[in-house]
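To illustrate the input format used throughout this study, we show a single complete record. The first block contains the structure-token representation of the backbone; no residue identities are included at this stage. The design step must infer an amino acid for every position from geometry alone.
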């Protein structure tokens, strides 16, 4: 089975072909960083227009790299949500129309299922039950995966997502967009002990997160240093390191707690923030506690078409199908609703 994956939920156009026995045959990503960086964040209308510009050439290029003809495709998966409405409509209209034209099934895929399965795509030995920590720009969730395709969100953020908090603090420190990787690089030069920020909600039972109070603490600290003329480059790096340490510690504490309660020995961590090297270093330490940790390769942490192709392949393999002509996108869509 040859499955084409199409990802257009936000600011990356991602296209891939996944094949049942050989795995991933090709994947291409066009990033819109250049389009949005002058504005300091994603402009939805510009994102949609850029997806329209790139989707077709990228599909052609990906098929060429995969060495297959478009008629070889046996199924299509496209991101149907959650994400930006206009951006989702581009990939969904393209995917459904192409499926109709080729006479093959096309399926709307949940973006976070794609992220969640990206480590499984690279390592088929990972089988349920397992815990998943999803950390991206729009989501921070702890998901208990009891069976393939069945997701129980046991924890989620009450306000900002971890990646969103990274982006906002990066903006505050003048680092620009996309902020997460830049903040993380700055943190490497800083002392995480100089400013101690709180580890939100870790003193409360349960698995939920909240990063907006932490963000305010960091903003207040930066402001007070600025008023004293002390917000120099080292202070910025120390703030970045202190903030990153607080987010990482919080995520680790909640992961450990969820593993204890569910008695899972396997944790997968995915989404854009799973590229963070400090988070990876701290998570690996859980292996000493008998936990098996899996991350995607760096190229599959942030948005890509490969994870969508793989998620669609798994669903099509089980006979899930949708032949209606309706184009249905869900900008808000919970994983538990799958
Ligand atoms: O998964 P993703 O590409 O898009 C969403 O589905 O949201 O995640 C993007 C998020 C952004 O907030 C970005 O700043 C963050 O992931 N991110 C990072 C790193 N790389 C990407 N955050 C912290 N450290 C990184 N190295
Ligand atoms: Zn994503």
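Output of the design step:
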């Amino acid at each position: 089975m040859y499955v084409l994956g199409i990802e257009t939920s936000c600011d990356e156009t991602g296209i891939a072909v996944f094949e049942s026995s050989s795995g991933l045959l090709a994947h291409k990503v066009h990033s819109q960083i250049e389009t949005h960086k002058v504005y300091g964040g994603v402009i939805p209308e510009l994102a949609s227009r850029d997806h329209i510009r790139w989707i077709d050439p990228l599909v052609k290029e990906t098929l060429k790299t995969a060495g297959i003809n478009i008629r070889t495709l046996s199924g299509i998966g496209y991101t149907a949500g959650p994400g930006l409405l206009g951006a989702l409509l581009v990939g969904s209209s393209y995917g459904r129309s192409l499926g109709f034209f080729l006479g093959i099934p096309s399926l709307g895929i949940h973006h976070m299922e794609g992220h969640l399965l990206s480590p499984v795509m690279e390592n088929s030995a990972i089988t349920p039950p397992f815990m998943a920590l999803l950390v991206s720009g729009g989501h921070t969730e702890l998901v208990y995966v009891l069976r393939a395709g069945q997701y129980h969100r046991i924890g989620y953020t009450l306000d900002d997502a971890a990646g969103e908090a990274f982006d906002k603090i990066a903006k505050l420190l003048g680092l620009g967009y996309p902020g997460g990787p830049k903040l993380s690089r700055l943190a490497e030069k800083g002392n995480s002990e100089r400013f101690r920020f709180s580890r939100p909600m870790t003193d409360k039972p349960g698995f939920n997160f909240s990063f907006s109070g932490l963000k305010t603490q960091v903003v207040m600290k930066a402001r007070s240093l600025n008023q004293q003329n002390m917000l120099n480059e080292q202070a910025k790096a120390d703030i970045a390191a202190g903030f990153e340490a607080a987010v990482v510690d919080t995520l680790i504490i909640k992961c450990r707690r969820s593993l204890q309660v569910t008695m899972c020995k396997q944790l997968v961590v995915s989404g854009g923030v799973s590229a963070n090297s400090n988070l990876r270093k701290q998570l690996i330490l859980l292996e000493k506690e008998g936990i098996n940790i899996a991350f995607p390769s760096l190229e599959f942490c942030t948005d890509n078409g490969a994870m969508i192709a793989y998620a669609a392949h798994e669903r099509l393999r089980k006979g899930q199908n949708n032949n209606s002509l309706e184009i249905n996108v869900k900008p808000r869509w919970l994983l538990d609703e799958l």
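Structural context for interpreting the output: The mean pLDDT is 97. Residues 111, 115, 136, 271, 303 surround zinc ion (ligand 2) (CB under 6 Å).
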